[in-house]
Amino acid sequence: MRSGVRIIMFGRQGAGKGTQSTRLANHFGVPHISTGEMLRKAVKQDSVVGRAAVSVLIRGELVNDELMVSLVQGRIGQEDARVAGYVLDGFPRTIGQASALDSLTEARPVGFVIDLDVSREIVLGRLSARRVCETCATNYTATSIEQNPCLCEKCGGRIIQRTDDTEQAINHRLDVYEAQTAPLLTYYQGRGSLHVVDGVGSPDEVFNRLRTVIDSGQ
Ligand code: AMP
Predict the structure, then answer these.
(1) Would you say residue 218 lies in a domain?
(2) Is residue 29 part of a domain?
(3) Sequence-separated contacts (24+) of 162-168 with Cβ below 8 Å
(4) Into how many domains does the chain fold?
(5) What's the mean pLDDT in 198-202?
(6) Closest Cα partner for 83 from 184, 4, 175?
(7) What whole-number distance in Å separates Cα of residue 142 and Cα of residue 132?
(8) DSSP 161
(9) What percent of the chain has pLDDT over 70?
(10) Pocket residue to mutate for ligand 1, from 19, 63, 127, 180, most atoms within 8 A of Cβ
(11) Which domain holds residue 151?
(12) When comparing pLDDT for 169 and 81, which is higher?
């Protein structure tokens, strides 16, 4: 019997990580743990974490490792994730976070590390058109919602542009990704656990590629 599915998803912002992580999580019946989503929720709730993170998020920089590790430690320790596994989206983002995650997952190691590969040029175009439901975080593109007066098809929530999806913040986040997160690909490649999956194509095409990789590795 399978003892859970534990997946880390890497990819530039706008590569489709959120969409594909949700699909994988539904497919395998595990929680989708998005650290960006956790932080945005905390900001919306004006919690202690939200207040500590809000200006960092708007600038497109990284929240400190200590806070991020404790957030993830709390979440992956919950019953659903502990037993069934998870799809981790947006974490780790630094070498410090990756080595903390190694310690946290010693007993139940991550099985798949995936790099959803989409070039910077392509994600820049996608991100400036990205819109998101402020209630359930479903992604839309600016062109697809022209006919609909900006309400989410799934939950009726308001569709907005993320405050960190301005051109300047997008470019900065992509620079931060290249500088701090891309080196993690080498880190996981060195252990032979990295799978690079082409993220260009329709959501169904990309999802099928991901499933093939995971199914063949189980
Ligand atoms: P995302 O939705 O994954 O693009 O994350 C949005 C923002 O949340 C990032 O630009 C960072 O400011 C912050 N963030 C999310 N995950 C992390 C992480 N693992 N480490 C540090 N900051 C993070």
Answers:
(1) no
(2) yes
(3) 162/40, 162/130, 162/132, 163/57, 163/58, 164/57, 164/58, 164/60, 165/127, 165/128, 165/130, 167/128
(4) 1
(5) 96
(6) 4
(7) 9
(8) -
(9) 96
(10) 63
(11) 9-172+194-205
(12) 81
CATH number, domain at 201? 3.40.50.300
Cβ neighbours for 47, distance < 8 A, ≥ 6 positions apart: none
pLDDT band at 77 (very low <50, low <70, confident <90, very high): very high
For CA atoms 16, 216, 78, 109, the dihedral sign is negative
**d(Cα 150, Cα 57) in Å, to the nearest integer?**
24
pLDDT reading at 148 higher than 80: no
Q: Is 101 exposed, middle or buried (0-12, 13-18, 19+ CB in 10 A)?
A: buried
Confidence of residue 167 (pLDDT cuts 50, 70, 90): confident
CA 1–ligand 1 middle distance (angstroms): 34
56 within some domain: yes
Mean pLDDT of 40-66: 94
Nearest residue CA, atom 2 of ligand 1? 36
Over residues 4-23, the mean pLDDT reads 95
Closest Cα to atom 19 of ligand 1 = 91
Active site residues: 17, 93, 130, 162, 173
Query: For position 3, what pLDDT does the model report?
Result: 76
Q: How confident is the model at residue 1 (pLDDT cuts 50, 70, 90)?
A: very low
